[in-house]
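To whoever picks this up:

The nightly regression suite flagged Solute carrier family 35 member B4 as changed. Nothing in the input moved, so I suspect the structure step. Input below, exactly as stored in the fixture:
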Amino acid sequence: ASDSSLNEEDGLQVFLWWLLGIAALTFALLMSARMGIFQETLYQRFGKHSKEALFYNHALPLPGFLLLAPNIYQHAVLFSQSGEWDTGIPPLAPSRPLENPGRSFQIALAPGCRYVCIRGVFILTTECTSLTVTLVVTLRKFLSLIFSILYFHNPFTAWHWLGTALVFLGTLLYTEVWNSLGPFLRNRPKQE
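Regenerated output under the current build:
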């Protein structure tokens, strides 16, 4: 909206898309919380089997990727022919990605890292409540965002500071730090 070339109608359209994005994120968060509660119920009823849950959560959607097969193939071809990433960051070497062992190693490493992360989340779901799991995953996303901002040298805006404050406030409220600090603060000797 700060761009002078945007008229009032374009500004409204941008705002509506922003609202749609916020609504989609809110919906995804609510569905994620509902799925966590559903997993808790299943674990109580049938036992805690994190490997089985991990398998079914990832195996059942696989046939859906057949609908995207042409698009996946097209992007694999484009990737193998490109010399740069779409992010504007220069490539590791001015060659094709599959000829560059460093980039190919990064691409091969990504699924392994994701597997370790998601496996940890599924193990955590068997040991903790869904609210704790949601908190841990939110903190992990927050740390990923901070790492991304630092790594790609993006600006840390006032909205980022607000989000940071809300994440830490929510964490402190959930972990009940205030309650555990209460007796400590009450029993402190008074200074004269």
